[in-house]
Amino acid sequence: MEERVVLGAEASLRFLSLVSAVLAACLVALDKQTKKVFLSLEKTATYKDLQALEVVVVIEGVVASYQLVQLVRCLIRAKVGGISSCCNKPCSRCVCLFLDQVAAYISFSGTIAALQACFFAVTGNEAFQWTKLCNVYTRFCYTIAGGILCGMAASLFAAAVASISAFHLFRLFSPNKWFTLKQRRESRRGSRTVAAKILAGER
Fold first, then answer.
1. What is the DSSP string of the chain?
2. Which of 36, 39, 51, 177 is the most exposed place for a label (fewest CB within 10 A)?
């Protein structure tokens, strides 16, 4: 019962991270606004005008694809029932934890980099002679802000998923002895018990 609850929580968090990442990528990639900047000269603002936004679109797309694959894996495990012996191995758990941490870190770092770059579009920078852009492309900036918020949500959900993956890994080890698997300790205890019973029967 406990295992099904944890598996359901993992699947829910992966689904939320997937949806947030897709929303972030779509809001940023599909956002554009055309304004007259000088007399009859028109300029269209898109995510390609800022390299950090292009990075966000790529990162969120990769994170969404990864979460989709892992979500399918969770659903298959729930359909089959429980955890298979392959998924219960420390090596597979380590790989899963590593990939979940990478997904959380790159999503968070990419979103923060885009947020820092977009900050100059709001305030400008006199030292570099960067003018404010959000007072001209207001709707564009609001949509980008929504995409960044979705990206932050995706990274937070991915971090929560990584914590569940860490739980899945460390629960395989014994709490009494470092770097010792519970299965090995139980098998050793079982073999000792069998040997003791055999010796007692011979006596």
1. -HHHHHHHHHHHHHHHHHHHHHHHHHHHHS-EEEEEEETTEEEEEEGGGSHHHHHHHHHHHHHHHHHHHHHHHHHHHHHH-S--TTTTSHHHHHHHHHHHHHHHHHHHHHHHHHHHHHHHHHH-BTTTTBPP-TTTSHHHHHHHHHHHHHHHHHHHHHHHHHHHHHHHHHTTB-SSSTT-BHHHHHHHHHHHHHHHHHHHHH-
2. 39
